[in-house]
């Protein structure tokens, strides 16, 4: 794996080049470090005494300020070196600070919790458009912690009407319009695949799934189905004819279960009459348990779109 690829793992702001240069130490400016206690003297000594080759340090090209690697810089000076291997980063000063935080979170001497919180607050001030989850990933905090820092620092943090997620996509902060679009799409096409639905409305798959689930619960508050009485038979017929369902033993077992458990409301009165009064509570409990299991199975299949 190249030095750039190693440096880019988990990075919100990636490097733009993997070209490595030998740079004079005297040209480098000290890091704008998120570490409140400064460099660790003992770690510098350990590096200087080590015979292992160090990875290149990361430097902001525009300012020649070290982003990641000040311990290696001090160790190099301690060893009497005049040059050091450098990877250059092209971006703004705010992006350079973010990159430095990311580097210190994933390797080297870890940042303390107060340092990571302070770094998150500074990132929020300079890049308020980044989502809480994105900043959480970069700082090693939870998204809830970042959200609390944003809320606590609202007076100092510039307002932004957008959020940039970890996927790099820009989304409006007001999600009500996009949620309404999900509802409109589902009204027109109730069986629209989750991933297609999420992409069309510019929401996450989990959000699309949650909205569809709520809509179905409103339509069928008693756990029944809004479909016509013949829909089950048609769906079963479609599944049974599909070779993919019959290709494995698990698929064939599922078809048998679906056939044996298929029921519509027209059948309920006749079947209910066959239940002895003294067993009514037991049958009702078993039916409720089965209903919960089938619902959990349905939810798992619907949400499995996220893994595709």
Automatic annotation (TrEMBL):
Name of the protein in question: ParB-like nuclease domain
InterPro entries: ParB/Sulfiredoxin_sf, ParB_N
Domain of life: Bacteria
ParB-like N-terminal domain: residues covered: 21-105
Annotated organism of origin: Nocardia africana
